[in-house]
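Below sits the subject:
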Amino acid sequence: MPFRLWTEAERQASMEDALKHWRTGEDVWIYGYGSLIWRPEFDYVERRLATLHGYHRALCLWSRVNRGTPESPGLVFALDRGGSCRGVVYRLQGGLVPRFFPQLWAREMSTGAYLPRWLSCATDAGTVRALVFVMDRTSPAYIPALPEEEVLAIVRRASGRYGPCIDYVTQTAQALREAGIHDRRLARVARLLAAQRHTLPEG
């Protein structure tokens, strides 16, 4: 499968395109549905639970750096088309945008597998327009739905620069539970991973 990291110039061009309508100093909202829930890596002034319609959370993105390798890729969450997704939105102070967004792009757009979009997210305090990274189905990193046993096997064996893939999946499941977000599919995968982890032979 073709794989390459985006260059700094590619990330910069993508970021500038996403911010072309942003007014300097204006606060921005960022939507999180996976690791951004438990590891946002930026200071925010407000956090709300939010629902995004038209996309759902799925282990549909090959990870060949962060949670896997090119030889043994892992699976990480992305927003695939259809359904809805419960997550969180963060309000980032406008003055921090120039400093934080390059770091965000380095984290989320290392391979260009996402499409940055400004989408409406429903919260209890009203709808906000937030930056959302959705899956680019034309990317070679996109993987359609796999059989459950294959997903579990990939998650169990893969590991990358941020650690084991299984830790990423279970930490995300735990963060959702703590936030009061119910994701039945993820909860089932996390339960099966925990059960299998306890039955795997040592070493």
Q: What stands out?
A: Helices lie at 8-18, 35-38, 97-108, 148-157, 165-179, 184-199. Residues 184-199 form the longest helix (16 residues).
